[in-house]
Amino acid sequence: MRASREELSDLPVTDSHVHFGHLELGDGLMRVMDQLGISRLNVVCTPDRSRLSLVPDALHLKARFPERVYVFGGLDPSPLLIAPEEAGVHFASYVDTLLAMGCDGIKMIEGKPEMRKMLPIPPFDAEVWAPYWAKLAECGAPLIFHVNDPAEFWDAARIPDWARERGWYYGGGDFVSNEQQYAEIERVLGRHPELRVVFAHFFFLADQLPRLADILDRFANVCVDLTPGVEMYHSFAGDPDAAREFFLRYQDRILFGTDIGAKALLATPEAGIELEESRQRVSLVRQFLESDGEFDLAGEGGFLFGASEAPFRGIALPRDVLAKIYARNFERLAGDRPRRLDGTAIANECERLARMIEIRGAAGAEEAGDPSVARRVGAFFAAGS
Ligand SMILES: [Zn+2]
Question: Would residue 214 count as lying in a domain?
Fold first, then answer.
């Protein structure tokens, strides 16, 4: 039988994986969250080619909604270009900068093969990263880490059209392979088993649950999030009993997430945060967790789900397990309320970013950025502190 949205549980839901590409989108994002019944959200920040960092925008949103918004700040990638042999030292000290501003954790997208090709990112187990991993292990800050992509992105015959159009076809030898990155990450975890890492998108192992189980068994501080990739939900549908057993066994290690805002970040910024597209994301994940048997999603436009004939299948988890996946596992990692912001630290970092953007522009950088948002956010916090 199919659970409609009205039949979903009334449990509080924290979305651990939301993107926020510009401070002007804040009201729209919070309206969508209200309409979809999401009580709290975590903004995961990615580097931005021209603006360098979207952390200022996210902290501005958090200042407006301090009880509802968590922020996982992204690294400033410029050391990779300026002083690559010391990048790990700079990243380690940037963890302090992010936490001092009031970030609740760290986000990395540096394991997405496209990023790894675009920036001179060293292998994650290379010596240059060592100070950074040591810092994270020591301070205990949680990390949400995007490593790899769906295996079909390396396969010309199987990659979906929408992914190819975004330049995410990784065949042809120019991109790092997923197996190489799994091996690098396992070595990092072996050296620092205390690292508190959430691998986004189920670590792209939804079709290899025994392998993921082995990783979770060996590294007690590793978690995964449920953010689509729709291919995850087709994989789960292939053997719903095995999926259910996995979710019951690892009920403390799985976090709810949606990627709401990713489309506005990547594809159509002018459209803002789209309610219908966001609703499909929430509906896919929640119906999978809560409904019993087949379900489908009406009227989605292909960005998220592409075309597939096979139905999704739910795993009807018990309420106490849902409560963990929806909110409590994230709270255990990031705190049961968002950390406080430090306006002076934020204003200082905004000024530094604005100057960096100006220097790049003066040096004729390919994508000369606009420092005005960083300046606006900096002035906002300077006035309040
Ligand atoms: Zn994402």
Answer: yes
Q: How much is the average pLDDT of 367-383? A: 91
| Euclidean distance between CA atoms 82 and 66, whole angstroms | 35
- From the CA of 201, how far away is ligand 1's center (Å)? 8
**Same domain, yes or no, for 207 and 312?**
yes
How far does residue 384's CA lie from ligand 1's centre (Å)?
Answer: 31
CA 46 to ligand 1 centroid distance, Å: 9
Centre of ligand 1 to C-alpha 347, Å, is 26
Q: How far is the CA of 262 from the centre of ligand 1 (A)?
A: 6
- Is the model more confident about 167 or about 314? 314
Specify whether 335 is located in the same domain as 240.
Answer: yes
Q: Ligand 1 centroid vs 357 CA: distance in angstroms? A: 24
DSSP bridge partners of 312: 295
Which conformational region is residue 72 in: left (phi greater than 0), alpha (psi within -120 to 50 degrees), or beta? beta
141 Cα–ligand 1 center, Å? 19
Looking at residue 276, which CATH number applies to its domain? Answer: 3.20.20.140
Say yes or no: 293 and 312 in one domain.
yes
Neighbours of 40 (CB within 10 A): 21
Number of compact structural domains in the chain: 2
284 and 199 together in one domain: yes
Question: Does the structure show a pLDDT above 90 at 160?
Answer: no
Distance 99 CA to ligand 1 centre (A): 21
Query: Quick check: is 292 in a domain?
Result: yes
Decide if 299 is inside a domain.
yes
Compute, in angstroms, the gap from residue 383 CA to the centroid of ligand 1.
32
Whole-model pTM: value is 0.94
Q: Where are the alpha helices (DSSP H) in 85-129?
A: 87-101, 113-118
Q: Is residue 186 part of a domain?
A: yes
Give the separation between CA 244 and CA 197, rounded to whole angstroms: 23
Query: To 10 degrees, the CA torsion angle through 277, 148, 191, 248?
Result: 50
Residues 193 and 308 placed together within one structural domain of the fold: yes
Going by pLDDT thresholds of 50, 70 and 90, the confidence category of residue 1 is very low
What is the model's pLDDT at position 88? Answer: 97
% of the chain beyond a pLDDT of 90: 77
**Cα(18) to centroid(ligand 1), Å:** 7
Residue 369 sits in which domain range?
Answer: 342-385
- Residue at token pair 């970030």: 103
